[in-house]
């Protein structure tokens, strides 16, 4: 297929673009480099540096079989302080993309959504039938996009898939996680091991879990990319399917820190901090629908493997930055 990857110079987009190329697809990456990196665009991809909302009509006029849509703002705190950036940058921009797809007859869309659409779920593992009640503007903007996709699919016959997931980690060779503002636990812990932070904060040690710390679902970025390739292949005309992606088990904050200690050989000082408002004790996704309908089977689920790949990427880029 000929595929356009929006946000393909970012963490998730670059890994998925690399998987598409490895699977024999012709790939174009569109990214404005506001948070992405030019050197993260995989070899074999055509790169278009442009604003998605402005460039989508002209780019899609070239003819594509599908779009993988990653371009988005994704900082929860920022979304609450500056909601206009998320309604404009996520929702309005995606509407421009959908209109361009409709005008040019682009038949398939795979949307990188988020499990933040579920807010604080009453039960876990979280299934796709759980009520959507986001607790922040970021999650609300992604949910609004899911609703928009459903209505466009109904009216115009698109084939669309939305993938919802929590914590993505690990790396795919030279493609990995590097954000100007880091909010994810594994890269934060690895920054401590690299000497970029003094200690890792543990937000609450009295949660109703086995070791008193929060449990979260982690998925290797390569498993996530596999799901996107499968979703592109299985997308059905006039149908919008939503799938949750996760390990089905989850790991605690302490387990993540211990895995990072084992991989890096660093003592990794940890400091206790008060609970953060709105943090549920356990967040784990059920991926049974994705397994049954997409044939998706995550194979890189060991925490040690996830951390090892992330650490190798961390050290590669730390070395490049210091050279």
Descriptive notes:
The structure is a single chain. Helices cover 41% and strands 18% of the residues. The chain is an alpha/beta fold and 323 residues long. Strand 5 (108-112), helix 5 (137-156) and strand 6 (159-165) form a beta-alpha-beta unit. Helix 4 runs parallel beside helix 5, helix 6 packs across helix 10 and helix 8 crosses helix 10 (303-322). It is globular, with a radius of gyration of 19 Å. 48% of the residues are buried.
Gyration radius from CA atoms, angstroms: 19 Å
Count of DSSP H/I helices:
10
Order of helices and strands: EHEEHEHHEHEEHEEEHEEHEEHH
Fraction of residues in β-strands: 15-25%
Mean pLDDT figure: 95
What attributes does this structure have?
323 residues, alpha/beta, 10 helices, 14 strands
Short account of what is shown:
Helices cover 41% and strands 18% of the residues.
Write the layout of secondary structure elements.
Layout: E1 2-6, H1 11-22, E2 26-31, E3 46-49, H2 52-60, E4 66-69, H3 76-81, H4 83-104, E5 108-112, H5 137-156, E6 159-165, E7 167-169, H6 185-193, E8 200-203, E9 215-216, E10 218-220, H7 221-234, E11 239-245, E12 251-252, H8 253-264, E13 270-273, E14 282-283, H9 288-294, H10 303-322
Parallel strand pairs: 1-2, 1-4, 2-3, 4-5, 5-6, 6-11, 7-10, 8-13, 9-14
Antiparallel strand pairs: 9-12
